[in-house]
C-alpha cells in the first residue's frame, strides 16, 4: 500500500532536502519502491542533492496541464527503485497554487506506482506547505537543536492544527467564526489546548464536529532532530514536546537524532548523497537507521508515547547516535 511521507520544517536551512534524498535511497535499498517529489514550490533543489541536472519537465508542467499525469514526470535517479518528480522554478505561478491545483496534485500523488512517496516541502507555514503536510497523518517535521528552529516548528504545528479545523467546516459557518476568534487570541497559557477547543466545538455540530476532531487528533508528527552535536541538544526536543502537548494537544513521535557531520559539505559539493559517498559517516548511519524505523512503522504505526516515555525515547536515540552504534540515528 502506498504511503505518503511529507517532510516539512518550520524554518529553512535545517537540511530537509539533503535528508529527503538520502532517506529515499535508504528506503529503496530496503526493497521499497520510492518516489521523491520536489514540492518546494519556487525553490526546488532536490535534483541537485541527488546529483541530477534540471533538464526534465517538473510539477509546473502538470499544474499548467502540459502533462496529464504525475507519473509522466517520473525521472530515473540512477538508483534502483528510486524515482524523482522534479520541482519547477521556471513556469510562473507554480509557487502560488489554487486549491483545485493542489487537489489535482494530491490525487496524482495517491496514484503513483510506489511504496513510498516522499514530499520534500518548502520551509515555513504557508498554506501550500501545510496543506501538503496534512495529506498524510505521519509527516516528518525536521528540526535543528536551536531555539529558533524549535519555536518555528511549534508555529508550523499550530498552523497545521488551525488549517485542519478550518477546512472541516464550510465558509461562513459559525464554527469557522469561532475558530477565527479562538485563533486570534493568545492560546498559550490559557489552559485550553487546540484539541480541547475542538472537543467543545464538536458539541455544537455533532456530525461535522466529530469528523473535525478526528481529523485533528489524527495529526501524528514524526520529528527528526538534524545536526545534533551533544546529548543536551535533546533538551530542545523536550521543549517542543512540552509546548505542543500543552498548548495544541498534539503528541510527537521522535524518529531520528542525526549528528552534525562535516562530510555533508563534501557530499553537497560533489552532488553525491552521503549514503553513497560515505555510508559509514555518522549522518549516513543515522539516516539508514531512520529508514529502518520508518519501514517498520509502516507495518504497525507506533502508539503515541506517553509523556513519561518520551524522554526515554529521545534520550535513547541520542545515546545511539553519540555512541556510534549501528542504530546511528
Task: Describe the model.
- By secondary structure, the protein is an alpha/beta fold.
- 47% of the residues lie in helices and 13% in strands.
- It contains 14 helices and eight strands.
- It has helices at 16-29, 46-49, 59-63, 99-110, 127-133, 147-166, 174-183, 194-202, 206-217, 234-247, 263-270, 274-277, 282-299, 307-323; strands at residues 3-8, 34-39, 75-76, 82-85, 116-121, 140-143, 222-228, 253-259.
- It has an eight-stranded mixed sheet.
- Helix 1 (16-29) crosses helix 13, helix 5 (127-133) crosses helix 6 (147-166) and helix 10 runs antiparallel to helix 14 (307-323).
- The radius of gyration is 20 Å and the shape is globular.
- The two termini are 26 Å apart.
Task: Write a short abstract of this structure.
This protein has 329 residues and is of the alpha/beta class. Helices cover 47% and strands 13% of the residues.
What are the secondary-structure elements, in order, as H or E?
A: EHEHHEEHEHEHHHHEHEHHHH
Largest sheet features: 8 strands, mixed
SS content category: alpha/beta
Shape: globular
The share of residues in extended strands comes to 5-15%
Provide the spatial order of strands within the biggest beta sheet. Answer: 3-4-2-5-1-6-7-8
The tally of helices reads 14
Number of strands: 8
Instruction: State the low-pLDDT regions, or none.
Output: 299-310, 325-329
Average residue-wise pLDDT = 87
What portion of residues is helical? 40-55%
Rounded radius of gyration (Å): 20 Å
Alpha-carbon distance between the two ends: 26 Å
Amino acid at each position: 500500500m502506498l504511503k505518503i511521507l511529507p517532510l516539512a520544517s518550520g524554518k529553512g536551512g535545517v537540511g530537509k532536502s539533503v535528508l529527503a534524498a538520502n532517506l529515499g535511497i535508504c528506503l529503496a535499498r530496503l526493497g521499497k519502491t520510492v518516489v521523491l517529489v520536489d514540492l518546494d514550490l519556487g525553490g526546488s533543489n532536490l535534483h541537485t542533492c541527488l546529483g541530477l541536472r534540471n533538464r526534465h519537465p517538473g510539477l509546473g508542467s502538470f499544474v499548467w496541464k502540459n502533462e496529464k499525469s504525475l507519473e509522466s514526470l517520473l525521472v530515473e535517479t540512477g538508483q534502483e527503485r528510486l524515482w524523482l518528480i522534479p520541482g519547477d522554478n521556471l513556469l510562473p505561478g507554480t509557487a502560488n497554487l489554487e486549491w483545485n491545483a493542489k487537489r489535482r496534485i494530491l490525487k496524482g500523488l495517491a496514484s503513483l506506482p510506489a511504496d513510498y512517496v516522499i514530499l520534500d516541502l518548502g520551509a515555513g507555514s504557508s498554506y501550500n506547505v501545510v496543506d501538503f503536510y496534512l495529506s498524510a497523518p505521519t509527516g516528518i517535521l525536521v528540526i535543528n537543536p536551536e531555539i529558533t528552529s524549535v519555536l518555528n516548528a511549534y508555529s508550523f504545528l499550530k498552523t497545521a492544527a488551525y488549517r485542519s479545523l478550518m477546512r472541516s467546516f464550510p465558509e461562513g459557518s459559525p464554527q469557522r467564526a469561532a475558530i477565527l476568534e479562538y485563533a486570534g487570541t493568545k492560546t498559550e497559557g490559557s489552559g485550553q489546548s487546540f484539541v480541547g477547543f475542538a472537543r467543545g466545538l464538536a458539541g455544537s455540530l455533532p456530525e461535522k464536529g466529530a469528523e473535525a476532531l478526528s481529523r485533528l487528533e489524527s495529526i501524528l508528527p514524526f520529528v527528526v532532530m538534524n545536526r545534533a552535536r551533544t546529548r543536551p541538544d535533546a533538551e530542545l526536543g523536550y521543549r517542543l514536546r512540552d509546548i505542543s502537548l500543552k498548548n495544541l494537544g498534539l503528541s510527537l513521535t521522535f524518529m531520528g537524532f542525526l549528528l552534525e557531520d562535516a562530510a555533508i559539505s563534501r557530499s553537497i559539493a560533489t552532488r553525491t548523497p552521503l549514503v553513497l559517498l560515505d555510508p559509514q559517516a555518522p549522518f549516513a548511519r543515522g539516516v539508514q537507521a531512520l529508514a529502518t524505523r520508518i519501514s517498520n512503522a509502516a507495518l504497525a504505526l507506533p502508539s503515541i508515547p506517553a509523556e513519561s516515555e518520551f524522554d526515554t525515547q529521545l534520550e535513547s536515540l541520542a545515546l545511539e547516535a553519540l555512541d556510534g552504534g549501528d542504530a546511528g540515528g
